[in-house]
Specification:
It contains ten helices and eight strands. By secondary structure, the chain is of the alpha/beta class. The protein has one domain: Alkaline Phosphatase, subunit A (3-Layer(aba) Sandwich), CATH 3.40.720.10. An eight-stranded mixed β-sheet has the order 4-3-5-1-6-7-2-8, sandwiched between helices. Helix 6 packs parallel to helix 8 and helix 7 runs antiparallel to helix 8.
């Protein structure tokens, strides 16, 4: 594939439940329904905890395989190349923009071309700030892959105030503002994938409850039919193979997910 024509942005909203997204009444939800292929019934992995879910997102295997089962990273016993390593190994550029420092372990040293952390535990309004930083870089340099993590929905909305509370829905709406800005300003030639790592209930997550396990997965680009609902089961493990296919990158043989197109 022509590397100049196939580029991908992932935006992950930590803890964004599909019904929480819909309940905001945000106009961008209508844009998703009309212009993206999507499902509001995708499943994350067990345990439905942030770092294990992100490891499964980037390595396309369950936590039982990659070995990260809590928010403390442990090196893999039988290492699997993740999405960042696969992209770098193909001679393409991978970039990260995030607000939760533990995500630094999603990629191995020297696999990222550029990364920025804005620590959500040290600063406020980090979703807006990291979105601005990411867009400035993407528009100026057009990397092949960008991962943008928005953490306030989980931290400020869910854990502090409770999932589905007014504060939670306000934080989801703010994240959708950020995603809408990315969608409108990203350069031509980019596909955009939007998802969550997990949901939540009351002021927690990590169980097998549907409220914790169900996530949205939405994809925009020439390969995805506008207004189409993905058929069958969709897993967070399917995202890395989808990105690899979009970029023309060979996925590691250990990956368990399947491309969404």
């Amino acid at each position: 594939m022509d590397k100049g024509q196939n580029k991908v942005i992932i935006v992950l909203v930590d803890g964004m439940r599909p019904d929480g997204m819909v309940n905001t009444g945000h106009p961008f939800v209508r844009t998703i329904r009309e212009r993206f292929s999507y499902t509001l019934k995708a499943r994350t992995v067990e345990p439905s905890v942030t770092l294990p879910c992100h490891m499964s997102l980037f390595h396309s295997v369950d936590p039982a395989r990659h070995g990260v089962t809590t928010n403390t990273y442990v090196p893999q016993v039988r290492p699997i190349k993740g999405l960042a390593e696969a992209i770098d190994g193909a001679g393409l550029s991978a970039t990260f923009f995030y607000t939760w420092e533990e995500l630094r372990d999603l990629s191995r040293p020297d696999s990222l071309a550029y990364s920025v952390l804005v620590n959500q535990h040290k600063r406020s309004d980090t979703d807006t700030e990291i979105t601005r930083i990411a867009l400035d870089y993407i528009c100026a340099h057009e990397p092949d892959f960008a991962f943008i993590y928005l953490g306030e929905t989980d931290e400020v909305g869910g854990h502090d105030a409770g999932w589905m509370s007014p504060t939670y829905e306000k934080s989801v709406s703010k994240a959708l503002d950020c995603i809408e800005r990315i969608f409108e300003q990203m350069p031509r030639g980019y596909s955009l994938i939007i998802l969550a790592d997990h949901g939540g209930h009351e002021r927690s997550h990590g169980t097998t409850l549907p409220e914790d396990m169900t996530i949205p997965v939405c994809a925009f680009g020439p390969e995805f039919l506008p207004g189409h609902e993905f058929a069958g089961e969709v897993s967070i493990k399917d995202v890395a193979p989808t990105v690899a296919k979009l970029l023309g990158v060979k996925p590691p043989r250990e990956w368990e997910g399947r491309p969404l197109y």
